[in-house]
Amino acid sequence: MIRDGEIAELGPPDSLPAPDGTDTLDATGKHLFPAFVDPHVHLRTPGQEYKEDIDSGTAAAAAGGYCAIVAMPNTAPTVDTASVVESLIAEASRRARVPTGFMASITPGLRGEELTEMAELRDAGAVGFTDDGKPVVSAGMLRRALQYQRLAGGIIALHEEDPALSADGVMHEGAVSARLGMAGIPSLSESTMVARDASLALYENASVHFQHLSCVESVQALAEAKARGAKVSGEASPHHLTLTDEAVRSLDSRFKMNPPLRSESDRRALIEALRSGVIDCVATDHAPHARHEKEVPFEQAPMGTIGLETAFAAIYTELVGPGELELSTLIERMTSGADLYGLHTPRIAPGEPANVCLIDTEAPWTVGENGYASKSANCSFAGMRLRGRVLLTVAGGAVAHRQPMLVAASARSGERSEARR
Amino acid sequence: MNERARHLISIDDLDRAGIERVLDRAASFAEVSGREIKKVPALRGRTIVNLFYEASTRTSSSFELAAKRLSADVVSVKSSGSSVEKGESLKDTVQTLSAYDPAAIVIRSPHAGAAKLVAGWTDAAVINAGDGKHEHPTQALLDVFTLRRRLGSLDGVRIWIVGDVSHSRVARSDILAFTRMGAHVTVCGPPTLLPREIESLGCEAAVTLDRVSEADVVYVLRMQRERMQQSFVPSLREYAAQYQINDRRLSPSQLVMHPGPVNRGIEIAGTTIDSTQALISEQVKAGVAVRMAVLYELLVGANVMAVA
User: Fold this and answer.
1) Average pLDDT of the residues in B145-167
2) Which of A9, A404, B115, B288 has its CA 20 to 30 A from that of B29?
3) Which of B196, B199, B203, B226 to mutate to test the interface with A (most CBs of A within 10 A)?
């Protein structure tokens, strides 16, 4: 029972009396989970609202069972001043379907040349800092940011890529890139930077989060850094956990993202790291692009796949179904980004804010068959048959998403779960 | 297996029997090319669009000639001087040209996968005349045609492909086509210009010409000057010293091929180009007959290309 935006009571079926006017749902055979938190979303606002905006992006989040998301600052203009952060927070308070946090950039314009006014940005409400989309190439510049974190606070999240090694690469370097004649991005363009920056984090005792890890070498570098006591964490995306560079043989630009889909052994390492906790959380790196931008030859297409609406179903179908990942571990990793980013972690317990999602884990659906809540359709899972449908999302105590098929159980009382706005 | 292929995008669209059928057809067209009147009416009244987004001499001219010798109407669109230069997208260009109801679109693009995309946007048959560094299937077919004429068969023939394999669509299509026809392929070049895991295509890899004497055929790739600026090789001089195919490195019994255009004195010595062991002008000559055969098989032939 949810009352006044909080989880009021929990009880077995038929044990809780529903007061008059309660919106009662029949959730027999469905799962009620803590709603998910995504620390890595591109809302494309400000400046590229033709790809996504706060309305559509947060609708996509709600449709995927998310009760909170964190938006990246690589917009146009970059989120690198307090006024941009403040206007985004104000706009989100009016338009967002789920609570939305905003990261600010580490360096103005993501140019890697000087620090943003990190303390002022934090005062304005920035969750943390990232130049996501680009690496902080200079170790010296990153070191300054890590030192300054002691004043400003906020997580520093890193997109790891050595541009001298990734160069003009468009996909993973391996047998598939050899066959297709496309320039490769070697795994070590990521892992050497993870190793470098984990050392910096340890030396400066800074909190660093590694975004969208994609390869076995990065997982090893992260595990070693954790073993040495560095305050580091890592995320993996649903697409890196379930797809490999074999998908790129289709030359379909939906499979172009940065970091690229890698080999099966890399995918295996990511799954194992997610299981063991070396990788702390799942993050979608939801990256919308307009149809005309992706309808070009692979090498010309922009990097990125949308992922909010498919994250749970993709991992549930591909990893939980075959027994490679426990459902409870998946749910934990879908919410644990919150704690890393200093946000409230959703829990199902009396007195907690109502952040829950109701999922039919066995319901099959075809990705994209009914379109997307996102403005964009560049989904690497499009056309795939997945299991796991999000029926209802309650975010911050409000119903943020509700499947039309989920009917009110008006005639029945005492359902397994109940939600009231 | 015998499902009719509508397009020629990759050598992977053809199995061995399919390749042989195209080459047999090409042999009969080669005979036509020897006549005084070099034209047959097979494609009379049909339109072929050549859409070239990259400079090309032999591929574009031989496709044009092939279509004309089959009596088709030919429209050639080059990226410079066309709406492409004004920023029109590939999709919009293809849909515009498709309004003329062409029987086939021949496309050359600097980007891998362009031909495959085009096939999804038009009802015309699509022929890949080179997409980025991915494939150049008609070049591979004419290379096989040339070798088959000279050797009878490629079964067991040892072929070395020498040079900048990384940036060569010809190398990729040739590796696939040569191995499919029974040849053993070794690629050889500077380690900086051999793609990682290239062996997964079914060839061997070598970084020196030390064992090149074992080759029955040496296929020389063009060395582009721009590779120097990107530090793939220190200098053209050093490249030539290590990898140039010349009389010193070859025995007279070894055949030499090159897709053109050649850089005389860099990847291949001028005397070798002009020697009797070079098949380079035969390759050019084969280009027209093979492209006639590809057009014919896609647009006319009844039991045409088999899907591999």
Assistant:
1) 97
2) B115
3) B196
CATH number of B11-135+286-299: 3.40.50.1370
The answer for residues whose C-beta is within 8 angstroms of residue A93's C-beta and 6 or more apart is none
Contact between residue B198 and residue B165 where contact means Cβ atoms under 8 Å apart:
yes
User: Which residue, among B13, B41, B30, B91, has the nearest Cα to B298 in the 3D structure?
Assistant: B13
From A245, A280, A285, A360, the catalytic residue:
A285
Report domain B137-283's class.
alpha beta
Of A175, A251, A292, the CB nearest to B112: A251
Is A280 catalytic? The answer is no
Instruction: State chain B's mean pLDDT as an integer.
Output: 92
Q: Is A408 on the interface with B (CB under 8 A)?
A: no
Whether residue A178 lies within 8 A of chain B, CB to CB, comes out as: yes
Q: What share of chain A is helix, strand, coil (3-state, %, to 5)?
A: 35, 20, 45
Sign (positive/negative) of CA torsion B53, B58, B64, B70?
A: negative
- The winner for highest mean pLDDT among A11-20, A91-100, B72-81 is A91-100
Residue B196 is nearest to which of A180, A184, A299, comparing CB atoms? A184
Chain-centre distance for alpha carbon B57 = 13
Would an 8 Å CB–CB cutoff place B205 in contact with chain A? no
For residue A204, the tally of other CB atoms under 10 A from its CB is: 20
Residues of chain B neighbouring A180 (CB-CB closer than 8 A): 112-113, 134
B22 Cα distance to chain centroid: 14
Partner-chain contact A184 B91, CB within 8 Å: no
Q: Which of A178, A292, A295 sits opposite B195 (nearest CB)?
A: A178
- Cα separation, A254 vs A247, in Å, equals 9
Whether B201 has a pLDDT exceeding 60, the answer reads: yes
- Reported as half-sphere exposure (CB side, CA atoms, 13 A), residue B100 has a value of 18
State how far residue B112 is from chain A, nearest Cα, in angstroms. Answer: 7
Indicate the SS3 state at residue B188. strand
Instruction: Please tell me whether residue B206 adopts helix, strand or coil conformation.
Output: strand
- Model confidence at A420, pLDDT cuts 50, 70, 90, reads very low
Question: What is the per-residue pLDDT for A408?
Answer: 63
pTM: 0.93
**Which strands form A128-130's sheet, in the order they lie side by side?**
A128-130, A155-158, A208-210, A232-236, A281-282
**Cα gap A1→A24, rounded to integer Å:** 9
Sorting pLDDT into bands at 50, 70 and 90, what band is A406?
Answer: low
Interface test with A, best of B9, B117, B203, B221 (most A CBs within 10 A): B117
Q: What percent of chain B has pLDDT over 90?
A: 85
Q: How would you label A172-188 residue by residue, b for 16+ Cβ within 10 Å and e otherwise?
A: bbbbbbbbbbbbbbbbb
Q: What is the pLDDT of residue A419?
A: 44
Q: How many CB atoms lie within 10 A of CB B177?
A: 26
Mean pLDDT across B106-133: 97
**Domains recognised in chain A with CATH numbers:** 36-349 (3.20.20.140)
Smallest Cα distance from A83 to chain B, Å: 36
Regarding predicted confidence, which is higher, A388 or B37? A388
Say what the pLDDT of residue A74 is. 98
Q: Please give the pLDDT value at position B230.
A: 81
Contacts of B166 in chain A (CB under 8 A): 181
Residues of A in contact with B226 (CB under 8 A): none
ipTM: 0.93
pLDDT surpasses 90 at B298 = yes
Nearest to A181 among B91, B109, B112 (CB): B112
